[in-house]
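Posting for a labmate who doesn't have an account.
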Amino acid sequence: MKQKRSLSQVVFRFLPEQTVDLAGAVWRVDKWVSPRTLQVDVDVVRSELLRAIYRYTATGRDGGLGDRLRRQDPIHVITPNDEDGTGVSVVPFPENYRCARCGRIETGNGRTCQCGSNSWRQLQFVAYHQCGKLDTPWIPRCNEHKQVRVDYPGTTRTEDLHFECPICRTEVARGFRFLRCDCRNGTLSYNVHRAAVVYTPHSTVIVNPPSQNIAIKFKSEAAVRQTLGWLLNGMVEEDPLAGRPTVDSLVADLVAKNIPEETARKMAELAASEEPNTISADDPLKGVDLGPTERQQAEEAALRLAYATAGGRWRITDLAAGAPPEAQVRYQRLYPTAVARARLEAVELLDDFPVLNAVYGYTRGGDSADSVLRPFPSGGGAIRVHGQLAHTEGLLFRLDPMQVGRWLHARGLLPTVPATPTDVRLAVLRESQIPRPGEELDSPTFGSGVTILVHSYAHRVLRRISALCGIDRDSLSEYLIPLHLAFIVYASTRGDFVLGGLQALFEHDLDKALNDIVEGEHRCPLDPGCAKHGGACVACLHVGEPSCRFFNGFLDRDVLFGSTGYFVV
């Protein structure tokens, strides 16, 4: 039997150990057959996975994935092979079948029922446990006749199932038995196979270098230093390594050509000494005082932003440069005014945003704290991640650092307002410990405050621009870079995705969108209850969980519109 499904359907709905409905029957996905290995930046993937699984690692329920990531086990990111006809291997599951005529239950459908019928249908119920176990439910039989039947009650409540003998009509059981799991940590649960508690995939979004050449270009320590300096100075140049050549940019270029970094630095320093007017010997991070941990986090976040913009970035000034006279008013007056009103440093169009949707495992039992994360099995000791690499469009929003400084001071997080944008950025880098998705904090911190600001702004944008760009809200997603006061709203490749919708918004209606974000209705229909209990709910700030990697946490309307809100101070 062969069935065809789209690449996105396979990546999100046909994962190993997941049950699926196909051709009128239920199947369990065994594996992806001959998948393709994606070319990704493994270091970036490793770092993002460690962040994504934190809530399981912290409780010792990550299935050993955290230890494997930290000891540098190889990572293979695979995607379905849609070129040679191979795809997904499935096996029939569960193995309980019910006769459509008399209701008898057998563990196979290859024989004629005692009532004479050959019409068998699978029971939709499965047995599962939070340890990851999945099994066919055991159903007892009549002691005398060794048979059993069941009538469907019309609900999915397993306790409503009435099992009886088809011969003597003796009741055999009501519902399924409470059997101890093999892990000896509780009893099995039962539900219909497609219920979310039976299988919950866990994924993260990773910005991947658009090409191997780009990845190589940013691999050297010099390139990373140059990139962080570029961000601290406001991303003025088109590219982190563009502009007047520096020693670090030359080192990065030479390392990308397979020259050892130590040799490359000697060559670059010699060139700078011989051509001081052409090559700058200035340190891009001169005066930047960050501790080792803060420096590493800042550099990793800077690389993510560099990868995001490597495919090309369009600024408002780029639109104005090639616009007809009738559009000049929009780009030179209306747009800059709206950007300033929205307390933004810039809004830019990313027309080739390289995003990897990476699924790294699953849980059974829903999102319960007792559920164990199960990484996908793989051979050879490698960590296997299932994913889809897409190139889509996105809008980069960069918050005005001086307004962030005023907001931090008004909220009591900074004693004074820093003097320059660079000083604000450095203060955020020094003081912020960005919480991880799913992390619960005992008390607010500087880092959680910055995260709530950036995250709440991103959700406000997601909820307000969907109508203007013609893209369903659930087809828009966020990518947060709170350490550098930025976020990206991009069109995901699932759902009703309209290519060019964000570009059209950027070119024609950006001022309307930004004005609506600031001035549009911000009260919640569920106030005052919502305002008293977190200031964020499904009616005002929440979005669909596939669009939000923080599970709709770290949100609050008050940080935007309160008495000391970002749009107010």
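Reply:
Got it, the structure tokens are right above this. Residues 446-469 form the longest helix (24 residues).
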